[in-house]
Design goal:
The protein is an alpha/beta fold. It is 20% helix and 19% strand. It has helices at 2-17, 110-117, 136-149, 177-185, 357-369, 386-399, 431-439, 461-468, 488-498, and strands spanning 21-24, 30-33, 68-71, 74-78, 94-98, 101-104, 156-159, 162-166, 255-261, 270-271, 281-285, 302-305, 313-314, 318-320, 331-334, 346-351, 372-375, 415-423, 446-453, 473-474, 478-481. Strands 16, 17, 18, 19, 20 and 21 form a 6-stranded parallel β-sheet that branches. It has a 4-stranded mixed β-sheet with strand order 12-11-9-13. β1 (21-24) and β2 (30-33) form a beta hairpin. The protein is globular.
Length: 504
């Protein structure tokens, strides 16, 4: 927090001065695979209604940077229709109108971030790569600092972790969730702004898993977009074709922070909405280099604590198109301070395992902590057959099933911290984890996730956990490649220390 406040002070001061290998089982164990089939489950449309005739028209006053596009406002259906494959329950369609705003053509680069903040937090190295591994609070700090350097009025006022937004200020800011989706869709109503869905040559994502691969894993000839390259890294901004509004990388490369606190959409129509009135986590959009295509859809909503960062979440800047007009006056307060994390108390290690890798990690954690160990098992277990369990896992995710658990924690109230383990199945949690999370009240408790994976790290599993346990604090998560190898004990030890869990 000191670093964030220092950056804001700097900005204020400046203003005053002026293919083939191993295929993974759902639990992370390995089996040989054909490069045409890729890795297993571990892991254009009609235009919307617009009030302007040319939303991508570029009319820039002199003070707006060259690489910003004027997005002319209009009305659209935010969210996804009930018929959209892999939609979430939090994507309820509703009518939204947004006013004109400017949006950067590109995700913020590492060079741009370092030039203002004096440091580069990126997990990957390259001036023209998008900056990532920045918290929402650090993104806000960057906006204020750059505004100050350029003689603009900073948008945000920060006090500890409480942030208010002066909507009439002319400085740099984060887009609202509505502005982001409106700009991403660029007049379309389909899951992606392109007619079908992005292939690996059109966006940087986990290219082995294009849209609808889950239902067509063994019959890929039926796919509209075939599996392609998984680069396992960010790429220079602007590496692919832009969307119809002239914006690059709206799907993939890195997710992008928005202003909004996460919450349910309102049922009625909205004009220039600013998100939930309360909550603990901020929304980010667009998907990143390690996401499956289903989690890059225009309507997909991801979120994270505002003081946490990720290797696949970055920044895209916007500015008001007209300071002080009726649509942007006033201030918005959104504390988003977070739920906090429990300190001390009893620790429970709860895990679900299919092939054994997650079990091995859980046992290593127990060996180092002496904490209680609880295995999540099912009344009707998944099949032992690899191909069958692939179908069962994606079927349950698609249906958002809640498999019945065979055993239960009788004294959950005794535990303050839950270390929660699972394999990355189809880029999210296995549905037995959802059953577990919905069975107990985690209010005031801390959940510290860990997962085994075959290349996708967490996928969107952390967002899934946060949505199911909104009143729980979230610790720093650990992703383990397959079974972790020789470094497992050391990796677990460092992770436990990071979370303040003392070894036995």
């Amino acid at each position: 927090m000191k670093k964030i406040l220092s950056a804001i002070l700097i900005g204020t001061l400046a203003l005053s001065l002026a293919g083939c290998g191993q295929r993974q089982t759902p639990d992370g164990s390995q089996t040989e695979y054909d490069s045409d089939n890729n890795e297993a489950a571990e892991t254009g449309g009609e235009p919307a209604e617009h009030t302007s005739e040319n939303p991508a028209q570029e009319i820039r006053p002199a003070e707006v940077p060259e690489d910003f596009v004027l997005i002319e406002g209009g009305s659209f259906q935010m969210g996804s229709p009930e018929t959209e494959a892999w939609r979430g329950e939090d994507e309820t369609q509703h009518s939204v109108t947004v006013s004109d705003f400017y949006m950067s053509r590109y995700e913020l680069t590492q060079a741009e971030y370092e030039a203002v903040m004096g440091e580069n937090p990126g997990s990957f190295s390259g001036d023209d790569l998008p900056v990532e591994n920045v918290t929402w609070l650090e993104a806000v700090a960057y906006c204020n600092a750059r505004s100050g350097q350029e003689g603009l009025t900073p948008v945000y006022e920060v006090e500890d972790e409480s942030v208010s937004w002066n909507r009439s200020a002319d400085g740099y800011r984060l887009p609202t969730e509505a502005e982001w989706e409106y700009a991403c869709r660029a007049g379309t109503e389909t899951p992606f702004y392109m007619e079908n869905s992005p292939g690996a040559e059109e966006a940087n994502y986990y290219g082995h898993y294009p849209y609808m691969i889950e239902e067509n894993y063994f019959s890929q000839g039926d796919l509209t977009v075939q599996p392609g390259e998984y680069r396992q890294t960010t790429v220079p901004v602007g590496s692919f074709e832009p969307n119809p509004f002239g914006l690059y990388d709206m799907h993939g490369n890195v997710g992008e922070w928005t202003w909004d606190l996460y919450g349910a959409y309102p049922a009625d129509g909205q004009t220039d909405p600013t998100g939930a009135q309360g909550g603990t986590r901020r929304v980010y959009r667009g998907g990143g280099w390690n996401d499956f295509a289903k989690n890059m859809r225009s309507a997909y909503r991801a979120m994270m604590d505002q003081d946490k960062s990720s290797f696949n979440v970055g920044i895209r800047l916007v500015r008001n198109a007209a300071a002080g007009n009726g649509s942007v006056e006033g201030a918005v307060l959104g504390s988003g301070a977070g739920t906090g994390t429990a300190e001390g108390g009893n620790v429970l290690i709860a895990y679900f395992s299919w092939g054994g890798n997650t079990r091995g990690i859980a046992e290593e954690i127990r060996n180092q902590t002496g904490a209680d160990l609880f295995e999540i098992t099912l009344v009707n277990p998944y099949s032992d057959d690899y191909n069958t369990v692939l179908d069962e896992a994606q079927r349950d995710q698609n249906e958002q099933a809640r498999p019945e658990l065979a055993v239960h924690v009788e004294n959950m109230e005794d535990y303050d911290t839950i270390i929660l383990g699972y394999p990355n199945w189809w880029a999210s949690i296995p549905m037995p984890i959802a059953s577990f999370l919905e069975e107990y009240d985690f209010t005031g408790k801390t959940i510290i996730p860990f997962c085994s994976h075959g290349g996708g790290r967490f996928g969107q599993s952390l967002t899934a956990i946060a949505k199911l346990a909104p009143e729980a604090g979230m610790g720093e998560a650990l992703s383990v490649h397959y079974s972790g190898g020789e470094s497992l004990a050391e990796d677990v030890s460092a992770w436990l220390e990071e979370n303040g869990i003392t070894a036995e």
